[in-house]
Amino acid sequence: MTDSANDAGPSLSRRVFAAAPIAAGAAGLFGASQEASAAGAVKLSAGDRLEIMELLSRYAWAYDCNDPEAAAAAFTPDGSIEAFGQITKGREAIVKLIESVYEIRGDKIWTHLIDHYVFQPTKEGCRVFCYWTQVEKIAPNENGNIRATGYYVTDCVQHDGAWLIERRAIVPWDGSKLPW
To answer: Which residue, 148, 146, 144, 154, is CA-closest to 179?
Structure first.
């Protein structure tokens, strides 16, 4: 069965149409993207990309599970967060920043959902763009509401054999233009 708006030209099945973005994404994941060929940029392997995605996920889990030390450990020793109109630099300062946000949050439960990763290799490592959505709940057994949305711009580098965050900017969503 095919889906054709009219009889002119070949038609595509839904399955072929749906598979096209997956194939394009796989090509990007395995280094076939134009961004990886930028002069002097680090070439990211599929393994690098997965390690970076796990790093960013571990940061979100640590943050949401009330472990500011583990969240700060995702950063290089002199890493920074740019948020709320300020720059916080160094792991100790990041711990204090996160603890101050916990005070604002109070007893509410926050969960950060991150997705739609775009990798941009750089000379030092890579810059990652991804969406974040913050869900807020008053009690564990209730439904949550979306509190805020935005995107992260995260610079990741290899440090002592592991990918770490060197700089993260937290940007509220406005959707007016691509960030790269």
So the answer is: 154
pLDDT, average across residues 12-20: 41
The domain that holds 137 is classified in CATH as: 3.10.450.50
Residue 53's domain spans which residues? 14-172
Residue 18 lies in a domain: yes
DSSP per-residue codes, 10-41 = --B-HHHHHHHHHHHHHHHHTT-SGGGGSTTP
For residue 151, tell me if it sits in a domain: yes
Question: Per-residue pLDDT tens for 63-77?
Answer: 999 999 999 999 999
Confidence of residue 38 (pLDDT cuts 50, 70, 90): low
